[in-house]
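In this supplementary section we document a worked example of the pipeline. Step one takes a protein sequence of length 257 as its only input; no multiple sequence alignment statistics are reported here. Step two produces a three-dimensional model, which step three serialises into structure tokens for compact storage. The input and output of this example are shown verbatim.
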Amino acid sequence: RCGSSSGGSRLLAALGFSFVLCTASGAIGDGALVLIDQQESVDGGLVIGEVDLTGAAEWCGAPASATEVTAVTDRGGEPVPVQLIRAAFDEPDGRRLAGTLVMRLPAGSDGRLRLQFREPRPTVQNHEWGGQVRLREATITHDAAKQSGFPSRIIFADGKTVEGYHWNDRLFDKARGSYGLIFDPAAKVERLAEGPIGTVVRVTSRYLNSKGAAPPSAPRAVYDWFYVANEPLVWVRATIRQRQVDRWPEIHFLEFN
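The serialised model returned by step three reads:
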């Protein structure tokens, strides 16, 4: 009934679910049909999974510039909130459409959705942004000049301000010592997206010691901070890459004091 552009279905893990990406035509129109294999009820739930939609977009005839994903239910065409977070270390070259797909399924969903592709809408440029994420419960500040872009200030809705804490995400080896992300003076902060499900802030930083020196493998990390709209929920994903193979006995993630 449906087949993928690579000749078969592709299964992708997604918080206890799996996506089966197929290409199909239907009453709603051509698009990439997504079947969510439900291991448990996903009624009205948030679904997150790693995807590569390049082949699906090509099958749908979408131009290379159509890098924004929309979704509707396969039956009825009800809009479904969806956001695609670009894969870490994947330079946007107009040819690859991969990353983390986040969707909020409607109540009573049967797990059948149809993805479509369109030109991205104009967004606020990062130089006009200011580094703040405003949520219902709090306002969080990401400042590349403070702790290499990790959240450096939290102002809660009641006016209470929390700052002065210390992030300690690092690589550690007893013989070589610690290499932390907050020592990088060239760290980068960017707002990848602000959509119906939430705001995505990406922090890119190198692992350096307190003197600013890197180990020979030159490890670096990309942190994606996904602030879910209207909920006290932040989903954080870290992707680490290094120039050559190097084993680290300890990798510290989201450690602060």
